[in-house]
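Q: What structure does this chain adopt?
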Amino acid sequence: MKVLASTGREDVAMVYMAETGQGKLVEFVESIQPPLPREKKWVLIVSTLVGCPVGCRMCDAGSYYEGKLSREDIFDQIDFLVKKRFPDGSVPVEKFKIQFARMGEPSLNLNTLDVLEELPHRYNAASLIPSLSTVAPSGTDRFFYRLLEIKRKNYSGGRFQLQFSIHTTDEKLRNYLIPVKKWDFAAVAEYGKEFYEKDDRKVTLNFALAENMPVDPGILLKYFDPDKFLIKITPINPTHQALKNKLSSYIDPYQDEKKDDRLVEELRAAGYKLIVSIGEVEENRIGSNCGQYVMRHLKAAKDIKNGYTYSTQNYS
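A:
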């Protein structure tokens, strides 16, 4: 893999653009969480596909699809970042998270599982927590049941984070936002209940929440046990796809006044642990947040307010 360019800030987040040995372009990210230094928390976000065939309405990485990344291609991204910061492969970070969420639905690539299986043995990183975010496409049962085996063998006791991207409890609107055949709520709930074991992290139901996309606590309670599932609400980040599809974020990360209080109260009253994750707004300007994809922006003919404002630098 050859790193071609980068953008961002070393004290917030960096996005790297690279070419694989097969000539495919990929992106990957490293970020910290100010004011915490890298030694306290370091997050890597890597790609598993070249583009993505799912085409979520808010995601710039799904505007094309050119196939799966190999096990080596995925490890090349991680190796580059680890060796840049910790050349000996020892990662003395209190919270070291690797998210398989930059570009591509990870369950569509079985090579993701090979990487997860080897990760604990490849680096000296006692605090490693892999994080896998998925829309649970249909036809991926083989992936998820092997994932269950890998988690039990290598990541028990809360050392794995599984997240299902739901976005709304309205099935019709969910199908619009995630335009691919996928597991229904009953199937997600059944798998999540099997995946969660004593001392594990609760399975996350993520809502990148847009205006007029309902989240009904009654529907959630019908399927998802609050003892095994938690709710995370995030903004719709500034992307070309969100602009094209006229999706406005329910949460405005640039306003002090939070408009999510009613929904938060309802979900907590239903018994759910709730995380409202706004994140570092400077990452929107860098283009490192979820759903953003710098190479898509470079091809666009228009700018986006509060998004992708950093220039890229050739890497040397």
